[in-house]
Amino acid sequence: MVINTNLSAQNGARLLAESSAQLAKSLARLSSGSKISSPEDDVAGQAVAIRFDAQISRLGAVNNNLSNAISFNQTQDGFLSKVKKALDRMSELAVLAQDVTKVDADRALYNSEFSTLAAYVTDVAGKDFNGVSLFSGAARAVTIDSDANTFSMTGVNLGASAYTGATGSSVSTTGAAVTALTNVKTAITQLTTDRATVGANIARLNYTNEQTGLLTENLAAANSRIKDVDVAAESAQFARYNILVQAGTAMLAQANAAPQAALRLLG
């Protein structure tokens, strides 16, 4: 029996320290909800999780961009629907002005309304969305994924000759009304194309928005499998380590008391 070197106590202290470390780690996992409480828990898993977190954040930004682009197109379509009504009425006025029972004084009254509607169409051509022109005809590059790849959103130009030809017409005379009708019909044809373009843009952006939303959901699920703690399993481990710490503490006390038996030999 030796006194200076208590191997049982040293071994017990080492095991107690290991159990205490595991207990502390289990407690950290349960309190944080993450099974990677420190980098050494899963080095590769943490690297993947960091990349997933960054990609999910970028996809959130993409969804915002897509939503704004959809709103941009919806605003365009709202204005175009009103332009359609104006052009419809302008075509009606162009036909009314060709009535053989009307004199130029009557046509002047029709022309007054025609000119007012034409001014409305011209005014709409200058509208913007948050400072960005709605109807300049410029294509817009919309981000569609986390790598910032873009979709070219086709623009609409209300300053095109098809529209300016109609807005620059008059119905003050029978001959002018004939020309105005031709020009307005051309504008209406162009309008149908432009509204179809806007509709196609909205459809594409909606599909992309749904796609990025689904991708975000899948990435979050994958990230959860890497990072999130299984509370049921970790609770069982916590109980195990807690018991080991209590048992180790008790046994260390016994190991420290063992050398006292040597006193009996000295007595």
CATH architecture of the largest domain: Up-down Bundle
Low-confidence stretches: none
Spatial order of the strands in the main sheet?
1-2
Count structural domains. Answer: 2
The major beta sheet can be summarized as: 2 strands, antiparallel
Beta-strand content bin: under 5%
Helicity level: over 70%
Measured distance between first and last alpha carbons: 15 Å
The averaged pLDDT comes out at 89
Structural class assignment: mainly alpha
Fourth-level CATH superfamily of the largest domain: f41 fragment of flagellin, N-terminal domain
Which of globular, elongated, flat, extended, rod-shaped describes the shape? rod-shaped
Q: Tell me the series of helices and strands, N- to C-terminal.
A: HHHEEEEHHHH
The count of strands amounts to 4
CATH topology term of the largest domain? f41 fragment of flagellin, N-terminal domain
Task: Using the coordinates above, name the CATH class of the largest domain.
Answer: Mainly Alpha
- Rg calculated over all Cα atoms: 39 Å
Please work out how many helical segments DSSP would assign.
7
